[in-house]
Input
Amino acid sequence: MAGSKIFLGESTDGRAFWRRPWVWRSAAAIVAAIVLLYYPIGMIVANKIDDDLSFAVATSAVPEGGSAAVAIAAAMVDREVNRNGWVANDPFFMPSGALDNMPNFQQGIVDAVSTFTIELRDHLGRMRGSSKADENLDEALSSMQYSGTKWVFDLSVSILPTATSEAQYRKGIKALETYNAGVAAGTAAYDRRADNLQAVINRIALDVGSLSAALDKQIRENEGSLLDFTCDDLFYRVKGTAYAYYLILKALRSDFAPIIEERHLGPLWDSAVDGFAEVGSLSPLIVWNGGVDGQLMPNHLVSEGFFLLRARSQLYEIADILLK
Output
């Protein structure tokens, strides 16, 4: 009986403890603090705009005789997907799902790699443009053109799981690496002719024109507005694309070194590449779409547009020289 009394007494004391108001207030405060800090701290930890201009592929990752441009293209996507973590498709209940600058930067990188892969499949990866498209390049292109916002579930399509963006991009990375290994082994084409290089340059210049048009539209429609909450999305998308083109063009200089030297394109090429580096390195604390002639509020979209248009002009000049 004594043991039973002790047991009952302990049970009663335990229930009394949980009836105390301060216990519930403390528990509620702790839960609220966790909820309030979950998103901001999680966003800070996840956020990474990896605009390292010195990023390079390890020597061992470029097979002898392979393409430096293909290697860096695959490496950039691999870095964003497997090292930094792809965040554009993260759901709302993850802190990274609330980010917008990082996913736009990442998507800009994939945009540039996708554009470059089009030229690989249509020109560089064929002999005189008449042979059949390389299967690995077909696979790489379809994978890189996959939406960057697909999570495990896409209820707008099906209640069943779907292929995630990361899964598709990993397939694209593998396809590019397999293709490059074939180039090194002599079983896949990488036709280093001047007209093929010209096609790549024209394609990039055309894409830069589209970026400039998007910037111009955003500026014209929202210039000077403090309520332009989408200008940073465009800014970082353009920044990511320009950053990727910077690294790809640097690598193409190596791939086509004899032609660039023969046509005396070195200084002009480097100047165009520097323009992309300028855009890729822009990193304002807050992105503003201020008045074009504003004194207090800058316009960072105008800054991007200036460097892009200059680089585009130089790319077309390079293409004209390659045509001769």
User: Anything to note?
Assistant: The two ends are 107 Å apart (CA to CA). The chain has two domains: 1-46, 53-323.
